[in-house]
Amino acid sequence: MAKIRVLVVDDSATMRSLITAALNRDPDIEVCGAAGDPFEARGMIKALNPDVVTLDIEMPNMNGIEFLEKIMRLRPMPVVMVSTLTQAGAEMTLRALELGAIDCVAKPADALGTQDALNEIVVKVKTAARASVRTKADAAPAAVRTKSYMPSGDIVAIGSSTGGVEALLAILTMFPDTCPPTVITQHMPATFTASFAARLDRASGARVQEASEGALLEPGKVYVAPGGAAHLEVVRSGGLRCRLVPADPVSGHRPSVDVLFNSVAKAVGDKAVGAILTGMGRDGAQGLLALRKAGAKTLGQDEQSCVVYGMPRAAFEIGAVEKQVSLSSMGQSILDLASARR
Predict the structure, then answer these.
(1) Residues belonging to the active site
(2) What is the pLDDT of residues 69-86, one digit of tens each?
(3) Out of 3.40.630.30, 2.40.30.10, 3.40.50.1820, 3.40.50.180, which CATH number does the structure's domain 155-338 have?
């Protein structure tokens, strides 16, 4: 099988060297070039035709967001963004993911985190090489906030990974201020989830927030699992509440979709709707199966609308998915299943 050819774009010579060395150590990857700024990178993309580009967000002359917009308009290709662990970096990264970047990696804050970050870049480059590039023109059509939902007492649990920023925006844009209590686990670096929740909040009729320990699940509210340190669970304690569990990764992730889905199956049984969205790997498949066995309604995003048809495929293959639907139909399908008129 041909190696994945990667172009590394970063204004730091040190970072270019570290990323290049890490990628070249993988037998499936070959770094075909490295550029110090977007102008140099533009010529190298034309000359080298790489399979994947790693792109620093903060660069002189033209920042990574501006360059990504040009790439996605003129020559769409898989791009992995490399961002600093700052509020501004998080917001720009979310913008990049909305524009069509496949995934993001946080730059290490210190020497101790360098190897983990470099290992993560390798994994995400290999995922990006297999992903379906989605430009804004390919994205789900602008959603119209639904008026047909009637509260039923059900809750909604959603799991997603690579491509999930676009998917969750498309879904929650449809949610009204009366939407069912909704819990979400999206694989994302710890410093990005608060900004992501705020971005979803601006787009949705619902109130979207980062989940906190003990938060009461209420209609019209959406709770996004904080990245990195803990798993999000739903428990009964004077009502349904969020619980943050600082435990080892499950299914390779923390927070894990499997942990969230399993907790919802245990806490509410058939009074739930579970949906598994685009992402690499198998996280969420067994948890969605537990939900379906408990009597909950379950949905999986279809292959055609996924950036990476990994998690939904794994769930579908074990019988966890009751129905596969496109991203453009997912928001309404979730609300229909959770509605009292069902």
Answers:
(1) 161, 187, 283
(2) 999 999 999 999 988 766
(3) 3.40.50.180
